[in-house]
Amino acid sequence: MHELSICNSMVGIVQQYAEGRTVRAVNVRIGAMRQIVPETLIYCWSLVTETSELMGAELLVERIPARIRCSACGQEQVLDKPVLKCDSCPDGRMDLVEGDEFLITSLELAEV
Ligand SMILES: [Zn+2]
Predict the structure, then answer these.
(1) What CATH number is associated with residue 53?
(2) Cβ atoms within 10 Å, residue 74
(3) Dist. CA 70 → ligand 1 center (Å)
(4) pLDDT tens digits, residue range 79-102?
């Protein structure tokens, strides 16, 4: 389960940025092309943080749909099937515009 190792490395990053302050929530953005199940990630996060300084910090996942663009006609579309094919022309090559990201976008820290 690679979500567990992702959570372990996120804990390290978040603790580094929090510098000992209490973290209420961590916002992450995950592209649809990433093989990550948000529910599993949230579950692993609670397991990993349970015994750390980040206990109680909520993981808030924002899912980004995969967007692709045709190199022939410029058509952009949301990828809803695992086929990189343009809907508006027969032979365009599709490039991934977004959907491959995995970012910690912000931390919500407790008031001091
Ligand atoms: Zn096209």
Answers:
(1) 3.30.2320.80
(2) 11
(3) 5
(4) 877 677 898 998 888 899 999 999
